[in-house]
Sequence to fold (670 residues):
Amino acid sequence: METEGISNKINPDLIKERQKCTFNTVELTYLLDGGEEKTKERKSREFFFLEDPELRSKIPLEYLSHKEKYEESVRIACKIFQKVQQLQSEGKGGMDNFREILGGQLGSALLKDGNPLTLHYVMFIPTLMGQGNIEQQAEWIQKAWNCDIIGTYAQTELGHGTFIRGLETTSTYDPKTEEFVLDSPTLTSYKWWPGGLGQSANYAIVVAQLYTQGKCHGIHPFIVQLRDEKTHKPLPGIKIGEIGCKMGMNCTNNGYLGFENVRIPRTNMLMKNNKVLPDGTYVQSPSSKLTYGTMIFVRVVLVQDAATYLKKAAIIATRYSAIRHQSQINPNEPEVQILDFVTQQYKLLPYISMCFAFQYTANWLWDIYNNVTGELESGQLNNLPELHAASCVLKAVSSADAAQGVETLRLACGGHGYMTSSNLPRTYGLVTAMCTYEGENTVLLLQTARFLIKTWQNKTNIGKLPTVKYLETSLHRKIPFEKSAKWIISALQQTAAGKINLANQHINERVKKGQSQEDAWNNTSIELAAAAELHGRMFIVETYYNTVNNLKKQTSRELGIVLQQLLELYAVYTILRSTGDVLRFTDALGRDMEALQLWLEELLAAIRPNAVALVDSFDIRDEVLSSALGAYDGNVYERLYEEAQKSPLNQEPVNKSFHMYLKPFMQSNL
Fold:
């Protein structure tokens, strides 16, 4: 957010709020970043990018045409990745850099409505690394790292998304020429949605149905050149373009792609796992599950992004709520800060706590992902199904709750939250897209449910699986009510186990009545999705609990108290969302729910004095927030006015439409 013309004075309400703080905000910042050195690295990285004048747009994006937005985003994206390569040459090019530069924090500050080159780094290169054999990696990865070529990942089609087995694009092997022939047999088989595909990428990893020796072997990835490397013109047989305007991410350059007898060499099929020999013989991998690595990787990253987008919205809404005075609690007294209304606290504080919950869960998932992918390299596949199930449900729950959270926080800012300059509408556009890409959320919940039902039916080795070991003992355990996060976790575990057990019973009953296993599953799918969702929420609370208990050993007493309050708030908030199920599947009583409600209100009151300090601890720069409502100095009204002046309609006192249309209309004596 530009600050020219705005005084450097801090809003007095924010000064008072910061003086109420009971803990050291810097200590919490270091804790969230992973240590003082990590904070220094992050700040240095932010300075390196955000202080570069070439990475700033002269005109706000919302006032550019769709075409101009794309052109400006390409300019900035190219500059960003020049700087990324500079960091790499200095030995500072780790994955943390890429996650931040391409993700919801630094990335969304540099390119506010999406980056046309993100998929090159997030999906094209990881897929080459994960599914290419040694020869293919040697040929392609250096070109991709150097940006000699720009790639994307083309899987989703106009007619098929999450159900990738149903993709229609074909790749048929011709042994005479040792080539694959790619075709789009129908309009619905056109690739649709890949970022950067419209005009940016000249290569793609294309997922297509493999045909060889007259037989279909299912979906496989192929490296396909789309455009001439010198002229950038589409190659023969390539039908390519951009899909048009969307609710958000309008600089991502999402595209469509069709094939008409496009030939590629046999060696362009990624063959680390499955292979086609020169004569057309198909050699299958020991495990078909190895091909899902890229999608799991992206889902892991998305949980972190959900936390980041939610943090931004929480900072904006909390600072604004401390500054905005509206209405009275007691007659004859001044208008109060809207943060003093308990309903407002209920809109804000649980989502502040949720930011911590998602960040800690994202950290856990990242560690597990790295462990399991390390095991895959040595041929161990035992933990892959659990990782897949965990990444599915955590992506689904975190994206859905973050989207709901950003919208709730936008509404908490009243009319001003509707302004583009609040950056809340754009943030919502970015976060709600996560609910459908990389797996539509309901489908992902059902994939997790399949793992849960299978685990429930066959409980061998369940104790070795951290996300489901509770299923061994939770169903019939007696857990007398107590006012603690531990009790809440036990109650949620018992409830989740009860829902899984009941869904399993209903599947079996339907099968006994003559339904096929598949029909029985479909007819029980509402229960199955709900069971998976509760399982996911329970696991987030449990991970939050374990993390806070470990962190309290390292922190000051004051910060430990605040972390405990936040954990308890998230736990209470989560269980109260499932009151009906908890009463159905545990021994909890109505009075226990009343006690939880009172506890929720106590926690809101306890956390209220630290609200602004907590969001300050997220340490997100004004340029990243890009919000008139959420800047650190709290000069909301000055910033709103300044942003209004940037409208092209304010560059002239009278618009030409007055003389062309409005004046004749007003003088027409209707």
Notes: Residues 342-377 form the longest helix (36 residues). The chain has a mean pLDDT of 92.
